[in-house]
Amino acid sequence: MRIRGTTLLLPTVAFVFSLTARAADVTGKWRAEFDSQIGPQKYTFDLKAEGGKLTGKAYFERMGQKGEAELKEGKVSGNEVFFVETANVNGTDLRIEYKGKVTPDEITFTRKVGDLASYQIVAKRVKD
């Protein structure tokens, strides 16, 4: 009985480790440049994943101004990420949602800007 339980336990442990190995590594810096309704934008996302939680900051340049935003509601699940940036536009907070798929060197995001616009952007990993 004991040998059988051990025999079943080893494949289960191997399966769990294989799932962990396949989880996307999003920790690091990612750059994106894209055109939007307000003109060209440049972003650097500085991300840190711990388990299923994602934290970080977005550093941006748009409309001739530079700024930064704390990322909120960050989640990582397998090769999928999600986070929210809040932008202040004319005194009103605007929710910008990012939902992406991660490969080793790129994140392909759907960027949803409130109820105003939604489009695809690609962020590339910054290599040191």
Topology:
Layout: H1 2-22, E1 28-36, E2 39-50, E3 53-62, E4 65-70, E5 72-77, E6 80-89, E7 92-102, E8 106-113, E9 117-125
Q: Describe it for me?
A:
The protein has 128 residues and is α+β, with helices and mostly antiparallel strands. The protein has a single domain (24-125), classed as Quinohemoprotein amine dehydrogenase alpha subunit, domain 2 (Lipocalin, Beta Barrel), CATH 2.40.128.120. Helices cover 16% and strands 63% of the residues. It has one helix at 2-22, and strands spanning 28-36, 39-50, 53-62, 65-70, 72-77, 80-89, 92-102, 106-113, 117-125. An eight-stranded antiparallel β-barrel has the order 1-2-3-5-6-7-8-9. Strand 1 and strand 2 (39-50) form a beta hairpin.
In spatial order, strands of the major sheet run 1-2-3-5-6-7-8-9
Low-confidence stretches: 12-21
In percent terms, what proportion of residues is strand? over 45%
Helix-strand topology string:
HEEEEEEEEE
Helix content: 10-25%
Number of strands: 9
CATH superfamily: Quinohemoprotein amine dehydrogenase alpha subunit, domain 2
Report Rg: 19 Å
What's the overall geometry?
globular
Give the CATH architecture. Beta Barrel
Q: Which fold name corresponds to the CATH topology?
A: Lipocalin
* CATH class value: Mainly Beta
Class derived from helix and strand content: alpha+beta
What is the number of independent domains?
A: 1
Number of helices: 1
How would a crystallographer describe the biggest sheet?
8 strands, antiparallel, barrel
Let me know the average pLDDT: 87
Terminal-residue CA separation: 53 Å
